[in-house]
Amino acid sequence: MNFFDAFSFINLRFLFDGLLVTIEVSIVSIILSFLFGAIMGTIRFSAIPFVSRIVGLVVDIIRNLPLLLIIFFTYFALPQIGIKFDIFWSAVIALTIFESAMLSEIFRAGLNAVPKGQMEAGLSTGLTYLQVMFSIMIPQAFRSMIPAIVSQLISLVKDTSLAVIISLPEFTHNAKIIYGQNSNYVIPMYFALTLGYFVICYLLSLLSKYFETKRYSY
After folding, report:
1. C-alpha span between 32 and 16 (Å, rounded)
2. Residue 114 in 3-state DSSP?
3. Exposed/middle/buried for 145, CB within 10 Å: 0-12, 13-18, 19+?
4. How would you class 55 by CB atoms within 10 Å of its CB: exposed for 0-12, middle for 13-18, buried for 19 or more?
5. Model pLDDT, residue 215
6. Are 143 and 215 within 8 A, CB to CB?
7. Cα(111)–Cα(113) distance, rounded to whole angstroms?
8. Membrane-spanning residues where (predicted)?
């Protein structure tokens, strides 16, 4: 009976509130990560003197740091130098920093996979570099990048659970509070967490498969 007792209306409402926070953090982080990742990946591909090297160095440093350390830095270290964010934005900024670095490599690899002749052909028609990038290079590269991008975004959704360390009231945090009040609810709460994360990530994986199918249909 303890298994089903764990899913009282109050507990379900509390879990749902945490799930909403997880979804909100994920959506905002995904949008920002995609934007900054695309910019950094394009800069690295373009080999802009000095700028590309700086961006590459920053990306390499971030990619080799644990996400948990970045979360600690945004929430505990930045206030020491006068930059303070609430828990929600601390989590979003940390996830954005980390995932942007990961996505930038996916963008760079996708652009490198496009034949160089495409760039040369575009420039030869009188188009500017930026016009060739946005009209020719990026659309072609994006098709091949979709599975890797979605896979990275699935990791982002799962990584939101690390924000429990700064007490963000997300899905894992709220489940932890529930089973902290009654140790008999540990298994039911882990079951709820498993189901919740599985549904979100599985839907994203279906989205990836859909775009993959569309890519090969062209």
Report:
1. 24
2. coil
3. buried
4. buried
5. 58
6. yes
7. 5
8. 20-42, 54-75, 87-107, 119-138, 187-207
Q: Rounded mean pLDDT of the chain? A: 88
Q: How far apart are CA 54 and CA 71, in angstroms?
A: 23
Going from the C-alpha of 116 to that of each of 139, 157, 168, the distances in angstroms are: 14, 35, 46
- pLDDT at position 216 is 52
Cα dist. 20→57, 151, 176, 181, 201 in Å?
Answer: 35, 21, 16, 22, 15
Alpha carbon separation from 17 to 147, 172, 174 (Å, rounded): 30, 11, 8
Helix axes 51-63, 9-46, angle to 10 degrees: 150
Per-residue pLDDT, 31: 93
Model pLDDT for residues 119-139, shown as the tens digit of each residue: 888 888 888 888 888 888 888
Structure token pair of residue 149 = 């991008």
The residue written with tokens 């990791």 in the block is 155
